[in-house]
Amino acid sequence: MSIEQKIQTGRPPVIEIKDMTKVYVMGKTEVRALRGVSLTIHEGEYVAIIGASGSGKSTMMNMIGLLDQPSTGSYHIRGAEVSSLSKDRMADMRNKEIGFVFQRFNLLARTNARRQVELPLFYAGVASGKAAKMAVAALTRVGLGDRTDHKPDELSGGQQQRVAIARALVNTPSILLADEPTGALDSKTGAEVLTLFDELHQQGITLIVVTHDMGVARRAQRIITLRDGLVISDEPNEKQQVTAPDAHYLEPQANEQRLNSQPNTTSEAESLLTPSIRESEPVHENS
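The structure corresponding to this sequence follows.
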């Protein structure tokens, strides 16, 4: 079903943002990160949000990901107003509706791939046996069905990012939200992750990628450009670079760049999420 056909069904869009602003107060200074942004994203769209440093794209991601609240304006997910929810309700909605993929993977060092993917299910209260099956299914979906017992230091950088993608998908969220998903990968491995995104899009996933890299943005079917907190363009990508429908995700080579060779950078969105996931927190134990 095309996006146009989905719009005609009368179902509410996955995301509808109207006149959103965000003002940060720093002492006597006001920083206007968003200046009245409006956008609508429908089910099954693959959207890139692009902009230079200071454009407001990171703030936009925090708003879409329910990591922060706007100063003014409205935000609906599947018709439900979410911009003024309490922190606890925002956390519940975030876990249910949004799967996050970050540049730095955010995997627990001593935990195998299956248990990494089970974490969102643990917070959602899913029984351990069912969670294990769902985690294995998600890992298989991203080509890691034979790596479920591997820990991060036993996986290449691309494989670690695929574990993170499986973790984002396991709750069947409405939105897959990726922040610079290839930023910690070499060019070959980054291309393989983008191929996986192409395949997920072909399966009907609603995918939003936030990036400064036009090469990444060109994989999307629609490109939204931010500058100085405003949407300056929102256009279909007529030169979308996609893989063939029957393309298969390529297994990374043994010499793929490893995570520990990358600079230790953490995005603002990652820093907001990571305190809730600690190595010492309980995860499902399964025999």
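DSSP finds nine helices and ten strands in the chain.
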